[in-house]
Amino acid sequence: MPGWRSIRGRVAVVITVPICLLLAVAGLVVHGRAEALADARTTRSEVGLSLRIQALVHQLQRERGLTNGLLGGEKDFRPSLAATRERVDTALRGMRHESTVEDVIHRHLRHLGDIRAAADTDTADRAATLAFYTTAVDALNAVDPVAETTTGADRQLRDGLEALRELAAAKEAVALERGLLNGVFAEGGFHGREYLTFTEVRATRVAALARFRHVATAPRRATLKHAFGTEDAERSIAYENRAESAADGSALHADAGAWWDAMTVLVDDLYAVQQSVGDDVRDRADRLSHDAEAGLATSLGAGLLMAALVAGLAAFASRSLTRPLGALAEAAHDVARHRLPATVARIQQSPQDAAELLLPGDVPDDPTSRPLGGAAEIAEVAASLHQVERTALHLAAQQAGLRRNTTESLANLGRRNQNLVRRQLSLITRLERQELDPDALAELFELDHLATRMRRNAESLLVLAGQNPPQPLAVPADGLEVVQSAVAEVEQYRRVLIAAVEPVRVRGHAVADVAHLLAELIENGLTFSPPTEPVEVHGWYDTEDDTYCFAVVDHGIGMSEADKERAQARFSGTGEEAFLAAPTRFLGHLVVGRLARRLGEGAQVHLFDTTGGGLSALLALPGRLLAPLEGPSLSPPPARPAVSCLLNGFRAGVARAEARSTQGASS
């Protein structure tokens, strides 16, 4: 066709495409060289800062151990402690100009003087003092730039940075063990959770050293092996074995000074290995920086020459192609950016039949009535675009109708299940009141619990379908009663530990949603934690923000940062998918998010990592959802297994279920 020959003649100019590809490759090379150079320079600077931070950490670790021994009764540590404090103060003054570290020092070490004074006067609590120093060390390790530095440009550099991170974790575990057992040996035995902390610290050390050996070079592994093969290291292992045998709280007769000396040699040796690895990483970054500078200069020269050539060819080619395609591009942009999105959005959001929404103005005109100019092939492309628009609109209408019908069907099914479960719960309640046999009553309670879980599933379906919002209840409920009602709706309720729940009263219209939301969080914690581990529920009043917080804490597998961000987006509604399109494993997240938004502004759900592993979910209720307490404020009850509170929770849950289900039936 003549038009096609015309297009082919113009496209001949597109001989410049290979040149453009070469230019793109050159640009990528230049960009890669520039990134490698910036990466090497940044790494070199950050390694230097890391070594200065680790020098401060090293002295803080020493002060922590000496202070713990002093509080345990070893008075001979006072001279060494005084000298160590001076070195800590000197290192702190050297770090004041580092903006990334200054805030951490202010937040975690501003009370260092008070801690020291309390230790000198023997009025400090040993466990609290150890925790103060450990928190400060952990904060400094967290702000260490090497802990966040990643690079994929060089395997050796990446392994060196990883080795630095793991060695810092191992050294902190060794130093913490030194300080912990220093106080234990000085006092003559373990107290409280000290033995558990001792075993956790040893496990952390073993894991960090294993990871270090995996990424470290052979010479560094040999240096580490030498550090753990000295007489002092072997002597410290003997002391550890002696401490391990005192798990039952029996008396420990050990020389705290000898333990301190042996472990200090080991900590200093690990610090020397750490400095040596840091020097190797810095040298490697210097070499990479030099190579990147040379490569960048060469690539820039070639890139500039090629850019000049491509610019001339591109200017000529664009003139011959852009004019015939201008009208087509304008029409396509109007369809893609305005007409099609607006029509599809109206179809999906409208409650009426989707087929009725396709107004005559929504269907594109015949392309032959709107000539775009240019070759015949361009007109054919325009006709194809209009056909795509027609097809997309009809498909959107069909999908909207299908989703609407599916949602209505699920909501109808949920309401039917809700009515059946309501009748079942009423029958079970009557049988419970009439039954006198304890064994039969226990079986009725299990049946009650099963029906309660079925009721929650039906209500979750209605929540996802946007149906049946609960009517306000006239009577507020106590916070403990709300927690008990939530526990009654989960399967493995015997594993739930209701910890201290400070007195609070939740307003009647929010009680059902709060209990349902807590049940979803507790169920998630039970599902993703070992069957031998309890899931804890806490409640407290935050006077600063005028909120009441419920926390569900598990010790399970936890979540990655990316998964937590996606879950948080579902909770807040910023990243919620349509529940019919979302994966089924995330339906609980969608239920929690919709319930939180139904509670209104200020009600929020947040996820945090549990110390020691696992995940913690925090539900914050604003003051407007809380009712005044009746009578004098009571102290929070002691922690107890949820099964001991389940009877009251069942009965309270059944009463609220009947009220909600009655409303569901009337709806």
TrEMBL record:
It is an enzyme of class 2 (transferase). It comes from the Bacteria. The chain crosses the membrane at residues 294-316. Its EC number is 2.7.13.3. Residues 55-281 form the Nitrate/nitrite sensing protein domain. Gene3D superfamilies: 6.10.340.10, Histidine kinase-like ATPase, C-terminal domain (3.30.565.10). The keyword Phosphoprotein applies. One of its GO terms (molecular function) is kinase activity. It catalyses: ATP + protein L-histidine = ADP + protein N-phospho-L-histidine. Keywords: Kinase, Membrane, Phosphoprotein, Transferase, Transmembrane, Transmembrane helix, Two-component regulatory system. The keyword Membrane applies. This is histidine kinase. It comes from Streptomyces griseochromogenes. The lineage of its organism: Bacteria, Bacillati, Actinomycetota, Actinomycetes, Kitasatosporales.
